[in-house]
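From the pipeline queue, job 12 of 40. The input is one protein chain; the requested action is below.

Action: predict structure.
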Amino acid sequence: MLGTRANLGISSIRKTFRLPNGAALYASSVEYSGLTANQLDFQDSQVSKGFRLRKLSAQIQRSTGIPTLSFFQFAIRIMRLVTTGSRLPLSTRESETELPIPVAPHRSVLKLIQSLDTNAEVLRRQQLFNTVLSRVQGLDIEPIFHHLDVGTSPYGFAFIGDSASVQQVRKQLHGLSVEIIHWPDLPDAVSVADNHFYRNVWVVNFL
């Protein structure tokens, strides 16, 4: 499970499920168990309009097949490209050291987590992984994982490829209601050459 391999671990819940925010701190060692004893108070501020629109458009897309989420993401990225010069959000140096405001998770997070059917979600992700794998066979990419170990619930489908091959993957996955994102976003302290394979790592996001 995410965050449980070392004595201390953190998993970002909102990157696993469509939630406004939230993370979990895990302690696998008695030495650090006191750090996880307290839960931050939930906060009641209004969930952003952007999050609500993404969630609604994702629900419509999955239930009807109409690509509402894809249209929404396309519009947002065009606006961001015009205003910032980048289609995707730009990381800031401050984001590496400063907590977001508010620091506490939104009250709706607990309700949404409790309503999740975990078995159905794991099955959906496993089936999606196998579907993606079958569709991209023969493309000029290198999947980082070619199969799922027993009990694995995949975050997404990671692969190495250049910009041209990514476009091919997008065409092959049309209709699956997934997006392909550039990953990982490296911090300033990590410097790699432009031709390093890290620059060509992508993931089909199952969120």
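Job complete. The chain is about 35% helix and 15% strand.
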